[in-house]
Design brief:
The complex is a heterodimer of chains A (about 260) and B (about 240).
Chain A (H helix, E strand, L loop, with lengths): L1 H28 L10 H10 L1 H35 L1 H16 L2 H11 L3 H26 L3 H9 L4 H39 L8 H10 L3 H30 L13
Helix pairs in contact in A: 2-10, 3-4, 3-6, 3-8, 3-9, 4-6, 5-6, 5-8, 6-8, 8-9, 8-10, 9-10
Chain B lengths: L2 E2 L5 E3 L11 E5 L6 H9 L10 H4 L7 E4 L11 H11 L4 H14 L15 H13 L5 E5 L7 H18 L2 E6 L2 H7 L2 E6 L4 E7 L2 H4 L8 H20 L1
Parallel strand pairs in B: 3-6, 3-7, 4-5, 5-6
Antiparallel strand pairs in B: 1-2, 7-8
Classes of the chains: A mainly alpha (about 260), B alpha/beta (about 240).
Chain lengths: ~260, ~240
């Protein structure tokens, strides 16, 4: 198993390294100017040189992303619980949650930025709108798929509504909620970046998207790539962190958290 | 009593049964004869459309009921001990005491040492033992079992049959056991109610006398075979009548 596990990390790492080397070689051999396509080495140098300003922007974007994700997770969970308590509430509200989901964020971001004075709050709302739906819909499904026999058992022993929710429905819905959270983590980042693009705010307290725009205007393409690397890296880190969280919470009882030894 | 569903289907018709303290009663019949419906009515999970159930219908007395489903029906996120402790905790007993009682009950179903195991680490037979321990942990007066061993292999089923009988002989709770196996009903029950489908009804009641049942090798005895034959005939007659 150790060999297979090592291969899982080793194979993509080797492939990535070869791709980067080929990229560097093409840029060097064909003498492509940096303002068209910089090589990976130059991008890394730029990242190190501009780390001071880029890291500030990274922090801004990460803060907005996590705040949006936290609000999406708690509101999504609360609303799903409300849906599970009352069919009428679910039927009246769910269509509007779908409307929120299907409307492209780029199209409504300008409106939100006009309506909300505080730019950060506006960005957070945009990221939240994108991240909210997967958590709500997954958790709702999870709360509805509780084992019928277990529900009967709880009824037989005279469990209160609260006991059924807390001891039965919420644990049953946990894997669904965590799957939703994993999707929403990536979406919150995308929402934050898109909103920053639309807002286009300058100044010191601006996020990575603004750095990308700014570098584009100034034709500092290596810097643009450096910011892009940070965005992707953040997305990967969020996904891995949420996968780890899910694994730790479910490993003892849920099939999805198998160690992957069978694959 | 009777049960008619909203669709107009008459699931159970004119069933009249008396249970005495300490009875072991099997409800035997083909699929769709309403045996599970009858069991759920006794448990109070569904109300009868007409007629009444005297002792368990009283909600205060319902504490005295244990129910074992066809599947183990365990909470996968909880250990064996926490699953067994559930009825006690729902009734408001503090965690530590409930846990102690659960551990004790697990030992009685021969699962000592598996207190902290999660259901997915247990075999089918072991999960069923946990389920039985959960049903018995409240010291119920009435144990309702809905084809509990149907999904298990024969060797495991025989062992669980023996263990269930031993528990019953020790504690003398009343058992209503739903099954579609002639052999299981004869081995376990003193009273066998044979049911027929469409509409579900009791067509005959047979008895397996204690002097036969208490034989050490009952399962391989000629008496056992004779009872099985008799019950099989009754079942065949019930099917023809339907």
């Amino acid at each position: 198993m150790g060999g297979a596990q090592a291969l899982r990390w080793f194979a993509p790492a080797v492939l990535g390294f070869l791709a980067l080397a080929a990229w560097e070689w093409v840029v060097w051999a064909r003498e492509i100017p940096p303002f068209i396509l910089p090589g990976p080495v130059q991008i890394a140098q730029t990242l190190a040189r501009d780390w001071d300003s880029l890291s500030v922007s990274l922090l801004v974007t990460v803060q907005i992303t996590f705040a949006a994700l936290a609000v999406a997770a708690s509101l999504g969970l609360l609303l799903a619980i409300l849906f599970a308590q009352s069919r009428v509430i679910e039927m009246s509200l769910f269509p509007y949650a779908v409307v929120l989901q299907v409307t492209p964020i780029v199209a409504i971001a300008p409106l939100i930025i006009i309506w909300v004075d505080d730019v950060r709050a506006a960005l957070l709302i945009c990221a939240w709108i994108v991240a909210f739906f997967p958590i709500l819909s997954n958790t709702t499904v999870g709360l509805q798929s509780t084992d019928r026999n277990l529900l009967d058992l709880f009824r037989l022993y005279g469990a209160s509504r609260w006991q059924v929710l807390w001891r039965l429905k919420l644990p049953s819905a946990m894997p669904y909620f965590l799957a939703g959270l994993r999707i929403s983590g990536g979406l919150a980042l995308i929402g934050a970046i898109v909103a920053e693009f639309v807002a286009g705010t300058g100044g010191t307290a601006s996020g990575l998207a603004y750095r990308i725009l700014e570098s584009g205007y100034q034709l500092q393409i290596p810097r643009m790539f450096a910011a892009l690397v940070l965005v992707s890296g953040t997305g990967i880190a969020i996904f891995m962190a949420l996968s780890l969280l899910s694994h730790l919470l479910l490993r003892r009882w849920h099939e999805s958290a198998d160690t992957g030894e069978h694959r | 009593m009777a049960k008619r569903y909203g669709t107009g289907t008459l699931a159970v018709q004119d069933v009249d049964m008396d249970l005495a303290r300490g009875d072991f009663l099997a409800l035997l019949g083909p699929s769709g004869c309403g045996k599970s419906t009858l069991l759920r009515m006794i448990a109070g999970l569904i109300p009868p459309s007409s007629g009444e159930i005297s002792f368990p219908a009283d909600p205060a007395a319902r504490k005295g009921i244990g129910f074992v489903f066809q599947e183990p029906t365990l909470m996968p996120w909880a250990t064996a001990a926490r699953n067994v402790a559930l009825p006690l905790e729902l009734a408001g007993m503090n965690r530590r005491e409930a846990h102690a009682r659960a551990v004790e009950m697990l030992a009685r179903v021969e699962l000592a040492g598996f207190e902290d195991a999660y259901p997915r680490a247990l075999s089918g037979g072991m999960k069923m033992r946990v389920s039985i321990a959960r049903a018995l942990v409240t010291r119920p007066r009435l144990l309702l079992m809905d084809e509990p061993f149907a999904a298990l292999d024969e060797i495991t089923r025989f062992r669980l049959n023996n263990d269930l009988l031993n528990l019953w002989r020790d504690e003398r709770f009343t058992v209503v056991f739903v099954t579609h196996s002639v052999f299981e009903s004869v081995f376990l029950a003193e009273r066998i109610m044979v049911m027929a489908p469409r509409p579900g009804r009791v067509v005959r009641e047979l008895r397996v006398p204690a002097e036969d049942r208490d034989l050490p090798e009952f399962r391989t005895s000629a008496n056992y075979a004779a009872h099985c034959r008799e019950v099989s005939h009754a079942l065949a007659a019930a099917m023809e009548a339907a």
